[in-house]
Write a structure and sequence with these properties.
14-stranded parallel beta sheet; 14 strands; about 25% strand
Length: about 280
Amino acid sequence: MNTGIVLLRRRNDRGVFGPERELVFFDEPILPERLAQIRTVQLWAPHDDRLERLPEIIGEMENLTSLTISGNSSEPSLVQEIRTGDLPESLEELRILDEYARVLTWPDVVLPRLTTLFVSDVFRFDVSAFPRLRAVSLKPDRVQANLREALRLPLHELNVLNVPLDERIFEIVSPLPLRRLGLLSGTKLVSLDGIQVLSSLESLRLKNLRALSDISALRELPELTRLDIQYCRRIRGIEVLAELTSLERLALVGCGDLGLTKVRDVIDRIPLTTIGATS
């Protein structure tokens, strides 16, 4: 996936990126006209020379809309010491892919146009920092405080990284006008009972849910157009696909023997399908 320019130090240019990626060195002069052209940035450093602070040059990219902080590239201080002005107000998407094995807390900095946030590690924030946020991917803390904080926003998309609950997760997120939901990794969710409270759901991703077996409640999602199930090897009742008449995209990957021969005609009628390591 091309994530725009790669922003790094000159000394860290170790030939990691191919010729198709443009490298910009933040420790060398950059013309203001060039800064104004940059829309998408991937901030990168090697794991043995991690960044402790956000490069000042990022705050001068007045048209920047997307910033990705690569995994194994930064210390926790990079995020926790961000100050007002360090990030441009134009930013709409922020992805923090580092995992610090500790709770990361967003400072008192407002990003007024941010609509999409992805954080790989446990992340706490106040919704006032992201007033226009509509898509969130986060790992809940032990008492789901950060998840409940996110639910104060009118989210359209929610991806829960490491689902901490059983079917109660659907009751918790039910107040949201969700159109897209991802439940990614977990050991407690056994069935999808209760998902019917999200009757407007258009897209559902289920991945690495090791206890999930009963998916029959999918029939209660009349608006579902996209279903992506990966590495859920205990699921049964694949015949429910026949009742998902609005389905336009289907992915079944790494799910083992589901008995797909029973629904082959149904699958063949779905416009876009991806089937891998699943039968």
